[in-house]
Amino acid sequence: MELTNYDIIRKPIITEKSMASMSDKKYTFIVDIHANKVQIKKAVEEVFGVKVQYVNTLKTLGKTKRVGVHIGKRPDYKKAIVQLTEDSKTIEFFEGM
Questions:
Q1: What is the Cα–Cα distance from 89 to 15, expressed in whole angstroms?
Q2: pLDDT tens, residue by residue, 56-83
Q3: Contact 51, 85 (CB under 8 A)
Q4: Are 33 and 79 in contact (CB under 8 A)?
Q5: Spans of the chain below 50 pLDDT
Q6: Contact call for residues 80 and 28 (beta carbons, < 8 A)
Q7: 8 class by beta-carbon count within 10 Å (0-12 exposed, 13-18 middle, 19+ buried)
Q8: pLDDT the model gives residue 50
Q9: Which of 70, 32, 77, 25 lies closest to 51 in space, CA to CA?
Q10: Where are the domains of the chain?
Q11: How far apart (Å, rounded) are the C-alpha atoms in residues 81 and 75?
Q12: What do you get for the CA distance between the two ends of the chain, in Å?
């Protein structure tokens, strides 16, 4: 099954640290765990209409949680930090936050 651009970009990460890096045109997203940097770059450029300089990715393992005797695990996820080029416009989705 082929991933579409909207399948690759799951949701933005809105934290104090990620909001501070937006002044440097760095945006953070949770992406599909099987997507590579080239697919992430293409998806961000097509969905938001911006120019991407580079993409950094990191995989995060889900925490083990327990409730009484039941032990479970949160799902693993992949985070992508996208750096836009200097002449690129900003992503309007994050404006006003």
A1: 22
A2: 999 999 999 999 999 999 999 999 999 9
A3: yes
A4: no
A5: none
A6: yes
A7: buried
A8: 92
A9: 25
A10: 5-85
A11: 20
A12: 35
Find out whether 27 and 81 touch, Cβ atoms under 8 Å: yes
Q: Which residues contact 39 (CB under 8 A, 6 or more apart)?
A: 3, 8
Cβ atoms 81, 41 nearer than 8 A: no
Sign of CA dihedral 9, 13, 14, 19: negative
What's the pLDDT score for residue 94? 67
Task: Please name the amino acid found at residue 5.
Answer: N
Tell me if 30 sits within 8 A of 87, measured CB to CB: no
Q: What is the CATH topology of the domain spanning 5-85?
A: Alpha-Beta Plaits (3.30.70)
Measuring CA to CA, which residue among 3, 7, 90, 8 is closest to residue 49? Answer: 90
